[in-house]
Amino acid sequence: MIRLEDLIKPNILALQPYTSARDEYQGNDGIFLDANENPYDLEYNRYPDPYQRKLKGLISKWRAVNARNIFLGNGSDEVIDLLIRATCEVGKDRILSLDPSYGMYKVSAAVNDISIDFVVLKSDMSIDEELLFSTLNDCHKLIFLCSPNNPDGRIIAPRIIEKILNSTDNLVIVDEAYIDFADANSWISRLSEYDNLVVLQTFSKSLGGAGIRLGMGFMNQYIVGILNKIKPPYNISSPNQEAAILRLNDLAEIGDLVNEIKESRVNLKEDLERLSIVDFVFPSSANFLLIRFHDYQTVFNTLKNHKIIVRDRSSNTNCESCLRISIGTASENQELIKVLKSIR
Q1: What is the pLDDT of residues 213-266, one digit of tens each?
Q2: Could you tell me which residues come within 8 angstroms of residue 19 by beta carbon, excluding any fewer than 6 positions away?
Q3: What is the pTM of this model?
Q4: How big is the CA angle at 206 (ends 201 and 211), to the nearest 5 degrees?
Q5: Which residues contact residue 107 at a Cβ distance below 8 angstroms, ignoring those fewer than 6 apart?
Q6: pLDDT at 24 over 90
Q7: What's the Cα-to-Cα distance from 295 to each of 266, 282, 291, 322, 323, rounded to whole Å?
Q8: Which residues have C-beta within 8 Å of that of residue 72, sequence separation ≥ 6?
Q9: How far apart are CA 338 and CA 344, in angstroms?
Q10: 27, 49, 202, 290: least CB-packed within 10 angstroms?
Q11: Residue (of 277, 279, 296) closest to 342 by Cα position
Q12: Which of 104, 109, 73, 111 is nearest to 93 (CA)?
């Protein structure tokens, strides 16, 4: 049986967290003389709720998960960093991820001086299961799985994630930044089955809140408590909490936009596959497409000259001559195809 406290570094277990003024009183009314704030009403003169209770309540209803199982970070990158800091000891523990995948796993590991091992994906971006399970061992304190994966948009088969969860007592982090664009169930619904499962989501993609910088972590409440111990006391600002609440009050419209993006993804893929300059378009369950071009550098520069900015992914493993293109509005997609058709 998994003992979550065994996954946490001893110094973190012994840590006495910083106590903020708002830990001691949670009401909104009163004379607040406890936090050395400017006492005059200047809109944001007061510190925000350090535990984002109102926002978590809305997320709880939206994702059908207990608010005690939610941790919010200043972007998912903060959640990734805190998970590493809470669990991984330098020179002892390692991280496991896929290659190619989201680059911040590698960056955060390097910042924390933690070694990271990669399971290289097959040429079609599927997982080499034999390689994965021969590489996975007890030293891998964290296993990061991006699904749909970035940069290709492929969903990881649930049976593979289940097998990983059943093969290790360490934390398995399923990064679902793009899950709302996929025809697949979120792993949030499986949290009660696996104490070592962590699911990451974000306001940056389907919710259209990239500027809010708000990442969501869904996990066992013990791990939430550990992350609350080591996070900055007021890591989510009042304006960001308010902006996120506005987004969650607009879910019907956001759902319509997500459906429009999914439909545009199908149409754009078909349009791209008709072009002679295109070698291959990878299947995607995200809001982007990874495309291999005959002459990607000419395509990249031509698009840039027309002020159409895409992402060069050619240096990534298995992504030779590839550009990643986000799904735009209908008019943006039409302009993209128009420019691509002009390239000879």
Answers
A1: 999 999 999 999 999 999 999 999 999 999 999 999 999 999 999 999 999 999
A2: none
A3: 0.97
A4: 80
A5: none
A6: no
A7: 23, 17, 11, 9, 10
A8: 52, 55, 56, 214, 215, 216, 217, 235, 236
A9: 12
A10: 27
A11: 277
A12: 109
In angstroms, the CA 111 to CA 86 distance is 14
Strands (E) in the chain, as ranges, are 70-73, 94-99, 115-120, 140-146, 171-175, 197-202, 215-218, 278-281, 288-293, 311-312, 322-326
pLDDT band at 323 (very low <50, low <70, confident <90, very high): very high
Helix (H, G, I), strand (E, B) or coil at 24: coil
Among 305, 308, 306, which residue's Cα sits nearest to residue 326?
308
Beta-bridged to residue 288, according to DSSP, are: 326
CA distances from 195 to 101, 104, 239, 340 (A): 24, 24, 33, 48
Which residues are CB-neighbours of 315 under 8 A, at least 6 positions away? none
Task: Compute the radius of gyration of the chain from its Cα atoms.
Answer: 22
265 in Cβ contact with 287 (< 8 Å): yes
Beta partners for residue 143, in sequence order: 96, 172
Contact 214, 75 (CB under 8 A): yes
How distant, in Å, are the alpha carbons of 86, 189, 205, 244, 331 from that of 56? Answer: 22, 17, 18, 10, 36
DSSP per-residue letters across 158-174:
HHHHHHHHHH-SSEEEE
Name the residue among 79, 11, 15 with its Cα closest to residue 223: 79
Comparing 91 with 19, which gets the higher pLDDT? Answer: 91
Name the H helices within 64-111. 76-87, 104-111
CATH number for the region 4-249 comes to 3.40.640.10
**Phi, psi for residue 122 in degrees, rounded to 5:** -70, 170
CA distance 142 to 87: 8
25 exposure class (CB count in 10 Å sphere: 0-12, 13-18, 19+)? exposed
DSSP assigned state of 184: S
Biggest CA-to-CA distance, the chain: 71
Question: Helix axis angle, 221-230 relative to 76-87, nearest 10°?
Answer: 90
The CATH code of domain 252-341 reads: 3.90.1150.10
